[in-house]
Structure formats: structure tokens, C-alpha cells
Amino acid sequence: MNDLGLGLRLLARMLRAGELTLLAIALALAVASMATVALFTDRTRLALEQEANRLLGADLVFTSSRPLDAELLREARWRGLNAISTLSFRSMVVRANASHLAEITAVEPGYPLRGSTRISAGRGSDDRLPSAIPEAGTIWGDERLVGQLDLRVGDRIGLGNRDFVLAAMLTQDPSLTLSVLGLGPRVVMARADVESTGLIAPGSRVVHRLLVAGERAAVESYRTWAGSRLPQGVRLEGVRDARPEIRGALERAERFMSLAALAAVALATVAVMLAARRFHDRQLDVCAMLRCLGASQWRVFRLELVQLLGVGALASVAGAVLGYLGQAVLGQWLTAVIGIGLPQPGLGAALRAAALGLVLMLSFGLPPLLSLRRIPALRVLRREIGVPAAAGAGAYALGGACVAALVLWHAGDLRLGSYVLVGCLATLLAAAMLTWGSLRLLNATRRGAGVSWRYGLASLRRRPVATVWQVVALSLGLTAVLTLTLIRADLLHAWQGNLPADAPNRFLVNIQPDQSASLREILRARLGSVPALYPMVRARLVAINGNAVDANRYAEDRARRLVEREFNLSWTNDLPAHNRISAGAWHRPGSSSLSVEEGIARTLGIRLGDRLTYDVAGARFEAPVTSLRRVEWDSFRVNFFVIGSPELLAGQPSTYITSFHLPPGAAAVVNELIGRFPNVVVIDVAALVSQVQEMIEQVSRALTFIFVFTVAAGILVLYAGIVSTHDERVREVAIMRTLGANRAQVLRAHATEFGLIGALAGLFAAAAASALGYVLAINVLGLPYRSDPMVWGLGLLAGVLGVGGAGLFLTRRVLATPPLTSLRQLA
Amino acid sequence: MRPIVEAIGLVKQVVSDGRDLNIVDNISLRVFPGESVAIVGVSGSGKSTLLGLLAGLDTPSAGEVLLDGENLTALDEDGRSAVRARAVGFVFQSFQLLPALTALENVMLPLELAGAREAHRAAAALLDRVGLADRLNHYPKQLSGGEQQRVAIARAFVTRPKLLLADEPTGNLDAATGSRIVELMFELNREQGATLLLVTHDESISSRCHRTLRLAAGRLLAEAPA
Lengths: 827, 226
Fold this sequence. Notes:
The complex is a heterodimer of chains A (about 850) and B (about 230). Chain A is elongated, with a radius of gyration of 34 Å. Helices cover about 55% and strands about 15% of the residues of chain A. Chain A is built from 24 helices and 22 strands. Chain A has about 850 residues and is α+β, with helices and mostly antiparallel strands. In chain A, strand 4 (about 120) and strand 5 form a beta hairpin. Chain B is α/β, with parallel strands linked by helices. Chain B has a single domain (about 35-55, about 80-225), classed as P-loop containing nucleotide triphosphate hydrolases (Rossmann fold, 3-Layer(aba) Sandwich), CATH 3.40.50.300. The interface of A and B includes residues 2 and 293 of A.
């Protein structure tokens, strides 16, 4: 088509002449920053997932009390995945006259598939990575086994029918994760040796596991395949299913990363919006000339559209490539800094960013084009006329809707996406209205002020629409960055609060009621503090609102497991720390009521006001759910899914449970407790806690990094915002200089103008970020909100210094050019 | 002979300070093919407005304009564009070259819009004719005022228009350069047999035209034959 050819030729000429440079750069950088952040968060997400899987020893684990179908293993290997099986069972470990019940894990070569076991030559020696699993005829035993049987490396122990040599002390083992509540000391041995022990006979209680790991996409598709043909009694878990505390940390980190990606989109939107406006302004003369030379309205539109689409496509592709390279560099750097190898990202995020860029360009470029085509040709005679009325709100609304849809798609999280969208829209509207009002108010200060102030204000007033655009755009950009700042601080604070250095690392389970007083006494004497002891009643959920609970009615595997096993109920009058009521009200004194954790309530379909029936050792009771609770699972404190009022549960047979922090070198306390209360089970989660702590450390470093990158994208917006009125400013400076204004006067006038724009944008952004931060913290991330007055100072400072500084920098360049040159360049 | 452009009872009314003001007030005129006509008058007398109306760049409040046989007032914006594309070339006081296009590309543009073949050759030849053969690939800002106006004249003539409209073509140029530009315009006008209608302050230009129309306060005063 003739117009396509001509449009492309015009595009090439405009590009060569540098006419489209700003638009192209703004769009390319916008796409690049969206792609980089998206790709990078994608990779970080994958890396964290893998990192978390180290806690599980695999990406996926099948668990069953019967041997697993060989088909599962065959299929996994056929799909190129690593897969090994393990057996876990309990047995007495015998040494001379002493013996102890231990948890034996028999593993195949390659164990563990993720993470690592570590062994040492005995207490007090450094641990190291083993080169393989235990050799035939040898075992590794953990510190508890070594302690309780008083063993040394090299000693012989009996296990079933035969003797083994203790080859090393086990200091770390991923399978810990799967058996936090597994009791007793642990032993790792080679699976090939199991048969010779004669310990496994038909009817023995053995847990069969299949560990699977491999490339992410293959694991996912395998999981889908296996999930659909899982036999009864076989459990399939990723680390999220196995550990609620990991799930919590990962989900929050992911939401933050989505938020960072959205902030990048918001910044890109603003940059493209401003650049498209400038493009429109600069095309006014071109369109008027085309009309004067006899091109029809639609022809002008088609020619401009070809140019817009052309530059959009070029810049988007360039941006996507740039983004891909950018994240590769970031990835390299991050790997060096935080020590997680980042998996390769999919190309999807880059393509998505490019598509988003093109849509952004059309959404903001097309409506002005619709008005450009109507430009009166008379503009060639009279420059002062001929900016056609702004495009109909309809055209912008359609564009806005496209952007909104893409933002939701990009966020991959409908709730988060909608909150951010509504927040941005509200910011836009409020900032526009407030700027308009402020301009009127400020005008009242003109009289009596110096010439620079008056001139600066006059500049703002003379271009009210441009001023409002600038303030709105800069507010939105700053809001994105400030919100991220606030949320990041909240997130880090919450994690540090949940997992301080003295986070509980030992659980004591099965404490009898009559032992609690003396146990408390020992802990007080040895450790100086007394942890809270929680009563625990084992009960089975049998009915909801009088309808018997049937595991088969639940589609979700987790739900089925939850109703099949016994719950640990507790009772207390006081809402435990790290718990928050999310619906209903906490127990009223004297009432019979239940409080349920909101996650499990969702899984099991329990609502506020439902009546639950529990069975405790054959006796049943029923009570209403009067509150739902949100629990900080990543706190490693004792937490319960269901807490009853004392009136309801105090009479039921119960034991006590507690958790406390055992400082390094205080192992004697545990031995004393075991000696005094042989029935009490001590569960050591120190290794798990430190692994989680390490992971959270890595997550927060990754977050900081993503944050810094988003701020860099914000600076681009700032530049685009200031450049958008640059041409006019160059002319004004030239005129002022011609009229004899000195450097200082021009600079002061511009400082006034930019400073005011920056201050307004900063204040609006601080207000918007506080509101958005509050909503996101409470509703999306489940964090307690801490108001931070710093955000106002930060917003104001960033606005005034950023906008003012960048503006003055550009002005200085203009000042360095002789006025006549400036005027001629614009003629 | 049919006039190339004819105005009948042309009025352009604007609202100024709440009062109606006729900046073009009941003007009728005819310009015949091959003529050269100057419109003169003081600033604000309505010269440029009249030119805009005659070119169909603006619409009159009353009256009619016939351009190359078409009644512009009966056409819509795109219809008027089509007439311009077919019959009219423009030269402006402020040159109105597109800054992003080179001299050659500025001259090629009207041909390209018309879908003409060999736009490049024709544009280069005309630029050669106006003495800019060595400036083809220069951007407007790299050219002097006189050179820019020569590019604009080449652009106006490259489509061989029947009517050339010029709005103060020497207004931004010094006297010597201005007179060379005028010379060039009249030469091309003769070579191509076009009709020339120009607005000017410059007596030296109007004196070279066949006729001069004087305008004051929007009214045509008298027609002074040269």
C-alpha cells in the first residue's frame, strides 16, 4: 500500500533526524526495565524455589506407607528427571548394653537431590560435605544418637540382624524437614544394606518415599501427570506443602516481586505517556503541512499511525533485547553477591514486556493521533492556532482499559494487580485535581515576591495542562518507588521480627500436666527465661454443622489429609502473640467457642459461625467458630490450627508443648530434661531454623536489588517528565537572555518552577504511597502496617532534589548555548 | 476565460472582546490563469486571512470561494485538501520546512503524497534549478534563511501547480536575498505558466505583478493595475 511505504519512509527520516529519539528511548527503556525486572524476578523466584527445595532434599516427594508404584519412578526417569527412593522406619540401635529407638532413613546413591547432608568426625570437629552416601556396612548417626549411646566414630552398633560401623556423625540432613515431629535420634544408611538387617518384613511400618528433582518445567509437567493418577494413600508434596513457614516466606517474597514488576510497569507507563505527548506536540507542524499539501484527514492519520507503530515495534523489540541482556548482567552480579545460582529465565517475561510496551504506546499515542488528523491546515499560516481539542475521553478510556488488562496479566496476581491499578488511578485523579487547585492558590503569592519567583510561577500557570501532566506523571512514578520502599521495609521488619537470632530452635512435646511446673523451673534456672507452655488435645474433626466430614468430598489432597488425621487443639484465654484475628472476635470469657486459622478454614471450607464437632478419644463435643486467625507460620513458635476457649477444652485429656531457644553450647540442659522427664520428646529444629533464616536473608538481598533497579527506572521517568517541556523552555530562556536576564535570574526562576513541581509531586506521592502501602500490607501481604513518617520527608526530598536538580541541569545546558543559536534551532 | 480563483462576497467574522469583528469584509475578486496578483495592506488589514480563505485553509463566515472550478465552501475539509493537492502550491513567510526532513526530502514530500514516480529525480532537478544542487542532504537548520526559502519555493513548484500562493515570501529575509527570491519565484512562474497570488508589504514585489489589490480593515480598497 502506498501509505505504508510512505509512512515507513517518513519513519526512517524522522528516526534519522533524531525526531523520534526521545520517544524511542523512553519506550525502549520502559520495555527494558519491565523486562529486566520481570525476568529477574522470574529467575529469583525460581532460585528461591530451588533454594527452598534444598530443605526438602528434592523438588517433589511422594510419600506412602506401601511401596510406591514403579511407574512413578519409570515416568520420572523417562522425562529426564532425577529420581531415587528412600525408606524410613524405626528400629532399636544397640550398642553393648545400651539401646535407643532411632529413625532410620535408607537412601540410594545420589541422595539428597537438592541441598546437602553434612557429616563430621565427631562432636566438636568441623563438618563437611560427604562424597557419597554411607558405604555398605556403615551408617551415619546424628548428635542425639551419638550422645545417647555415647558413641565415637568407628564404633560398632547393632541394627537388626547385623553390625554396622558408625562412619561419621550426621550434622545436617534435608530429610529433617519431612520429620520435624519425627521422634528420636536419626540414622542414615545405604538402602542396599536394608535387606541384610532383616528389619523389614511384611507388616512392618515403613514410610516409602520417592524423591524427584530436575529442570523446573519438566518437574511441573511431571507433577501434573502424577497428580492426576495418584493412588489412594500416596502423598505428593513440594516444599510449600511440607512447610507452611517456607510457604509464607516464599509467597510474600513473590508478591513483593510482583509488586516490583508492577512498579516498573507504572514507571514505564508514565514515561511512555510523557514521551507520547511530546511526540504529539512535535508532530503538530508535520500534520499541518501534510494537510496543507493536500493529504486527507485519514491519510494523515494512517501516515502517523505507521510511524507510531513502527517506532513502537522497533523500540519494544530493542527494549526486550536490552532487558534480556540487563537481567543477564544482574543475574551474574547477584549470583556473585548472594551466592545462589540463578536458573535461566523463560523468554515469556521479555515477550510480555515487549507486548506491554506496544500496547502502552498505542494506548497513549493513538488518542492524540485521532485529534492530530483534525489539525487545521491553517496552522501553517498562524502558528498560534491549531492545537485540536484533546482526544475524546473515550479513546483514552479504551487505551486505559488495555493497559489495565495488561497490567493484571503482567502482575499474575489479580488481587495485587487490582489494588495497584485502583491505587494508581486514584493517585492520578487526586494529583490532577490537587495540582490544579495548588496552582490557583500559589498564584495568590505572586504579589510582593521577587521577579524569579513570579516568573517561575507564571511559567507553571501559563502551561497549566503541561504542569498538571508533569506533576501527575512524576507523582505516579514517585508513588511506585515510595510504595516499594515502604513495603520492603515492612517485609524485612516482619521477617526479622519473626525470626530473630534467638528464634526458638527446640520443641518439647508430650509434657504431662504434672511435669509442667518442674520443667518450667529447670528452664528458668538454666536458661533464665520461661517459655509459654501450651496445652494440647488430640482430636479428630468429625462434623461441620452436623454434617459428617468425609475426606472423599474434598478435591484438594491437603484437605483430605487434614481431615484424616488428628488435630492438635489447644486452649487459652489470651490470643497468642504472632496471631491476629482476621474475622469475628476472640473468645469471650465463659463462652464455649473455637478460633480457626484462616488458611485451614479456607482449605476445609469452614466459615465463621459454623459449628464444629470433634471427637476426643471417643467423646464428642461441639462448639461454634467465633473467630478466624492469621498465624505467622514463619515464626517457628508453637502454633495451632484450632484454639478453643478454656471452658470448652480444659477438661479434656491433654499434654503440653513448648518451644524455646537453646543457645549454642547449652546441650546439657536438654540432656538434663531428657533425664528428668523420659517421656518428653525434644525436637531439634535448629538446622531447619538456620536454613530458613539463611533463605530469608537471601530473599531480602534479592528484594533490595530489585528495589534499586526500580528506582533507576524512576529516574528515567523524571528525565522524560522534564524533557517534555524542554523545547518551550529553550525558547523562553533565549528570550529572557535576550531581554537581559542574567544567569542567576534564569536559574532562580527555573529552580522555583522545578522545585514547586517536585514538591507537589513528592507530597502527593507520599500520601498515595502511605495509603497504597497500608492497603497492600494489610490485604495482600498480610503484614502488620507500620506508619512511617519518613516517607513524607523522602517524597519531598526526592521530588525537590530530583526534579529540581535534573531541571536545573538541563537549564544550565540551555544557558550555555548562545540565545540566537537556541532560537534558530527552534525556528 | 474561467478564473483560476474567484471570491464572491467573502466574509470572515470573529468575536473579539465580545463584539463581532469582520476581519474580511465582503470581498469579491477574480484571478485569471497566468496572472500575477499582489495583495497589499498594513498589518492586521486581513491579507493573510484572505489568503487562507482563498486556499481553503480556512472557512468563510459568508460568501463563496471557487478554486480551479470547485466551490470550496461546498466541500468538506478533505475535499478542500484534494483541490489543494491538485492545484495549489504554497510559499510561507516562515518557510515551514519540516525540520526532520532534508532539503531533498522536503521537496519530495508533495510528490510522494501524490504517489508520483521519480519523486527523487524531479525534486533534485528543481533544487538544482533554484541553485541548491550541493545542499540536497542538508537539514533546514543547516541552511541560511534565503536557502530555506529557496527549498520552500522548490517544494511549491515541484508539483507544477496551477496556482502559487505566497504569504509574505520575503518577510523574513534581508532586502538583497529577498529580491533574489522574488526573481526566482517570477522566473519559475513564467517557466511553468502558473498563476501567482501573493500577500506582501514589499512594494518592489507588488510593482512586478500584473495587478495589486489593496486591503484596509478587511475591505478591498481599489484595484491598481500595474
